[in-house]
Amino acid sequence: MSSPNPQHFRALVLHGAKDLRLSGELQIAIRVTGLCGSDLHYYQHGRNGDFIMRAPLCLGHESAGTITAVGTDVEDFQVGDRVALEVGFPCTSCGLCIEGRYNICRSLRFRSSAKTFPHLDGTLMELTNHPFDKCHKLPAHISDVQSALIEPLAVCMHAIRRSNPPDAESVARALSATRVPEETAALIFGAGAIGMLLTAALAATQHFSTLVVADIDEARLRIAASLPFPLEKIRTYLLPKPASEATPQAEAEADLAQQILSAFCLPNGFSRTYDCTGVASCIRMGIYATGPGGAVVQIGMGGAAQPNIPLSAAALREVDLIGVFRYATRGYPDAVALMGSEKFQGVAEKVATHFVRFEEGDRAFELAAKGVDEQGKPVVKVIVVSGTRFER
Question: Is the predicted pLDDT of residue 9 greater than 70, yes or no?
Fold first, then answer.
């Protein structure tokens, strides 16, 4: 661009031989970017699972900002609008894309991922161009803090949709009963940012009468318990930290799953278990803790191989194993709507625990990697802040 802050700009993009078109892009001054677990993997190891960096890569994909320029072929946006950036670019024409499942398009490219080469740079930058159809306008009452959490909340909204949770009538029947029926109880493994946002989304959308959050970190569980919902709605369970096993692994995990069920008087199991950790032991416990006809929803990303998953324990009770990968077509619109709703107020302030200036990038990553700050307080989500204006 010839000018850092033009009011309008035009760019010719080659789509094929002799096929030059005006690009439908917006120029955006990034205000906030949340750090994701994948960002940390790249920062610490130069790779995220099987995706290995082959060239310098700008990280970050949980971003929101303010439009500073609008392509002349773009409608419905203007300079000054605040937007959240959806950073997956599918082919748009395959069967999966047409079904609205662009997240598993075989040709998908994703900003900040080393899966494809040349890599597509992320959004942890001060100024970026982005396709207008992947920008979601934010209402004025959504704060900068809330806007930084739209992307991970979109993951949660997609997970809820995939899990086909109980309807409102089932929950109403449970609330009028003397005890909580299993079909309206859900278990969430992991009290990180995704786990807390998922718990809040499930509480706000009232798909379950009881939510149990399990984690090995007591401080994070205290934050989860303090989410702005009725105390009887969100319960917590402190898992034992990994140690040398005196009993066989499968037996120990089955026993622990039974202990969780006993603690909440759910002898027949949870209706849905959402694993936000990717840890193999949690996946196994989730299968054991889920009741017949229920589902284990896999959100957290673990290693490439997850050994000794008790598939027979799932198959014999028809417990469905449901994979979740990022978000599909409805993820962002649903996330923006929920984040801006009255029933979700106060959630973002619990999840976004630390804020670091753009110029202190190294500190932001180190803080996220350690999991606790200099005062010993738990780190749930680190937000990198750009520019001079920032509204919590």
Answer: no
CA–CA separation, 327 and 31 (whole Å): 23
Record: fold of 155-323: Rossmann fold (3.40.50)
Rounded to whole angstroms, the Cα distance separating 193 from 220 reads 10
Query: Would you say 215 and 301 are in contact if contact means Cβ atoms under 8 Å apart?
Result: no
Distance of CA 365 to the CA centre of its chain: 18
Cα gap 144→29, rounded to integer Å = 13
Sign of the Cα pseudo-torsion (123, 129, 132, 138, in order): positive
CATH 3.40.50.720 positions along the chain are: 155-323
- 85 and 135 Cβ atoms separated by less than 8 Å: yes
Cβ within 8 Å of residue 99, ≥6 positions away: none
> Average pLDDT for residues 208-222, to the nearest whole number?
96
| Signed CA dihedral, 103, 106, 51, 42: sign only | negative
> What global pTM score does this model have?
0.90
Q: Which helix (H) or strand (E) holds 193?
A: helix 193-205
Domain with CATH 3.90.180.10 in the chain: 8-138
CATH code given to domain 8-138: 3.90.180.10
CA–centroid distance for 309 within its chain: 24
